[in-house]
Amino acid sequence: MTILLFGVTKDIVGSPSLSIPTSSVSGKSIPKTVKELKVFLGNTYPELNKLSSLAVAVNNNYAKDGDAINSYDEIALIPPVSGG
Amino acid sequence: MSYSSRYNRQENLESFGLGKQYKLLNSRVLVVGIGGLGIPVAQYLNAMGVGVLGLVENDIVELHNLQRQVLFTEADIGQSKLNVALERLKLQNSETEFKAYPEFLTTENALKIIAEYDIVVDATDNFATRYLINDACVILDKPFIYGALHAFEGQVSVFNHENGPTYRCLFPEIPKADEIPNCNENGVLGVLPSIIGSLQALEVVKVLTGIGEVLSGKLLVYDGLSQTTRKIGFSRNPQNLKITALEQDYGFSSCVNVPTITSENFLSLKEAVQLIDVRTIEEFEKDHLENALNIPISEFSQKLDALNFDKPIYVMCQSGKRSALAVESLLEQHPSTKVFSISGGMNKIAEICH
């Protein structure tokens, strides 16, 4: 599953996109919802947990925490940006 | 200068024409912030023939603004952005009616100012003002055109347009001070604000004249490095349209989270205080408080030995922004210093003293 990163999330991860496994041989759980994805990413990149408003888009639509995600979905993390 | 020749490239444009041009001429647009975004917005709306332009800004031109705020020149450094912009924009189009607000948008003035306009352009550089504009526009039922930047990226959307979603439907909570870096900390490539500001100006024209598809319910995310744009659809949360009053505090001072003192309280201090003015030498020479020592912010961190750390240190500038940055950097190096930024700076002090 590919996750596109924008704004400060790109800086936190240090790359414009991120791949996460969609099947697990090690028995580790794979995120099935937006909320699980946020937790999964927050464990790897704790700085992401600090963001109080972080929009997650699934296939170019704003997704809620409970929405399901699949391996073929295109996911983007979109934080607010402040510069002018 | 005849009106018909001035706008004929627009009037001859199929699906725009004289009718839409009159709509622009009869429109009132408020631009909040005359910086990287606000400059292209104001220049293009002025050029295209918007009837009334309101401009809100209370900062001065600084050297580091010039890489992106292309209306200003080196000769303008130390001058009020608003005055310089007004002078240039009047030369650009003498038919526009300008309303200048030499202040920052606050919870005290926002509703009164915004009520006079058809549409608001958010060209600010901080979350506090963006959320304030959002809430004021929801209360007054005005659409607003959002634009914001991060490094090589930008975001554009039209909020609160014909009952459409708002900024809070996308980002419900105001980010805390240390979450998201601003342009000062993070940097921005000079041309980016001009691209995003131009997109905002286009959305203003679309909303005012009814042409095209307004970017409502969609967030445009632009990435300059890959030249890609992406539109993210989002819907409104009816709760966010129920705002009936502004919040008490949008966290204005938390842009940089440092100890501050109000101008009123500072002026009422009886003892001889240690006051550092971090404005440029030119600004300082023009007008300064009697007992102030001038250490321009550009030299501040190298000249800390000029400070007496045994006494409280009060730091001021024109508006309170640079002094907050100076205090922040001082506290990084000397965390236990008793130091305060004077909020509102020279602008507020002059207001109180006159």
Task: Describe the protein.
- The complex is a heterodimer of chains A (84) and B (354).
- Chain A is α+β, with helices and mostly antiparallel strands.
- In chain A, 21% of the residues lie in helices and 21% in strands.
- Chain A has two helices and five strands.
- Chain A has helices at residues 7-13, 34-44; strands at 2-5, 17-19, 55-58, 61-63, 75-78.
- A five-stranded mixed sheet of chain A has the order 2-1-5-3-4.
- Chain A starts with a strand and ends in a 6-residue tail after the last strand.
- Chain B is of the alpha/beta class.
- Chain B is 34% helix and 18% strand.
- Chain B is built from 15 helices and 13 strands.
- In chain B, helix 4 packs across helix 10.
- Chain B is globular.
- The chains are: A alpha+beta (84), B alpha/beta (354).
- The A-B interface holds A 6-8, 11, 16, 50-53, 55, 57, 60-62, 76, 78-84 and B 33, 35-38, 123-127, 130, 147-151, 153-155, 170-176, 178-183, 186, 188, 193, 219, 221, 223, 226, 230-235.
Features:
heterodimer, A: 84 residues, alpha+beta, B: 354 residues, alpha/beta, eight-stranded mixed β-sheet
Q: What's the SSE blueprint?
A:
The complex is a heterodimer of chains A (84) and B (354).
Chain A: E1 2-5, H1 7-13, E2 17-19, H2 34-44, E3 55-58, E4 61-63, E5 75-78
Chain B: H1 3-6, H2 8-11, H3 17-25, E1 28-32, H4 38-48, E2 52-56, H5 81-92, E3 97-101, H6 110-114, E4 119-122, H7 127-140, E5 144-150, E6 153-159, H8 167-170, H9 183-186, H10 192-209, E7 218-223, E8 228-233, E9 260-262, H11 263-267, E10 274-277, H12 281-286, E11 292-294, H13 297-300, E12 313-316, H14 321-333, E13 339-343, H15 345-353
Parallel strand pairs in B: 1-2, 1-4, 2-3, 4-5, 9-13, 10-11, 10-12, 12-13
Antiparallel strand pairs in B: 5-6, 6-7, 7-8
Helix pairs in contact in B: 4-10
In short:
The complex is a heterodimer of chains A (84) and B (354). Chain A has 84 residues and is an alpha+beta fold. Chain A contains 2 helices and 5 strands; from the N terminus they run E-H-E-H-E-E-E.
